[in-house]
Design brief:
mainly alpha, 77 residues, Methane Monooxygenase Hydroxylase, Chain G, domain 1, single chain
């Protein structure tokens, strides 16, 4: 699981760096906004994967308190 998540966050970091480079080179705002949308989608995907794996783990371990904490955080997303 960790390897997949590291790959995802590295992709998001690269996209965020791309936004910075686009701003520094005065790229068109529509292109920049499209890249920002990609960054947000990447973070959302990472969050969903973390929620999925953590909730499955809590269910298997019957750790209801931790599962409640995960659910509370999901509601805040």
């Amino acid at each position: 699981m960790n390897k997949k998540l590291v790959i995802r966050i590295n992709r998001v970091i690269g996209q965020a760096q791309g936004v910075k480079n686009m701003l520094e080179s005065n790229r068109d705002c529509i292109e920049i906004l499209q890249q920002i949308i990609a960054v947000r989608a990447g973070l959302s995907s990472l969050g969903r994967e973390l929620v999925r794996t953590e909730s499955e783990s809590c269910a298997m371990e019957k750790n209801t308190e931790r599962l409640r904490r995960v659910i509370d955080l999901v509601v805040k997303m």
